Amino acid sequence: MLEKWTGEVSVINIGATKEEGGSRRQVIKVGGQATLPFLSGEGVLANKPVVAFEVWDIAPSDWPAGLAKAYADVFSDPLAWAEKCVKEYKAGLICLRLQGAHPEFGNKTPDEEAKLVGELLKKVDVPLIILGCGDDAKDNLVLPVCCQAAKNERCLVGSAAQDNYKTLSVAVLADGHNIIAESPIDINIAKQLNILISDMGLALDHIVINPTIGALGYGLEYAYSIMERARLAALAGDKTVACPFICFVGQESWRAKEAKASEQEFPCWGPESERGVIWEAVTATALIQAGADILVMRHPQAIEKVNKYIDELMKG
Amino acid sequence: MEKFKVTFCPDNKTIEVDSGKTILSASLSAGVYVNSSCGGDGVCGRCKVRVKKGQVVTQPSGRVSLEERKQGIYLACLTTIQSDLEVEILPESRLDLDKLTPQDLDLRLKGFYSEAEEIESPSSILGDEIFAHSPLATKLYLELPPPDLEDKISDLERLYRQIRRIQDIPIMQTGLANIRRLGALLRSADWKVTVTLGKRNGTTEVVFIEPGDTSHKNFGLCFDIGTTTISGQLVDLNTKKVMGTRATYNKQVTFGSDIITRIIFAQEQDGLERLHHAVIDGMNKMLQDLIQKQAIDLNDVNCVVCAGNTTMMHLLLRIDPTYLRREPYVPAVNFVPTIRAAEAGVKVNPRGLLFCSPGISSYVGGDITAGVLSCGLDKEEGLAILIDIGTNGEIVLGNKDFLISASASAGPAFEGSGVTCGMRASSGAIQKVEISPVDFKVAYETIGGVRPRGICGSGYIDIIAQMLGAGLLDKNGKIKIKDHKRIRDNEYGREFVVAFKEECDSTVDIVISEADIENIKRSKAAIYAAASELLRHMSLEFADVKKVFVAGGFGTYINIDNAKRIGLLPDLENSRFIFVGNSSLAGARSILLSYEAMKKANDIARKITYFELSVEPGYMDEYMAALFFPHTDLSKFPSIKL
Question: Which of A125, A238, B126, B423 is the most buried (most CB within 10 A)?
Answer without folding.
Answer: B423
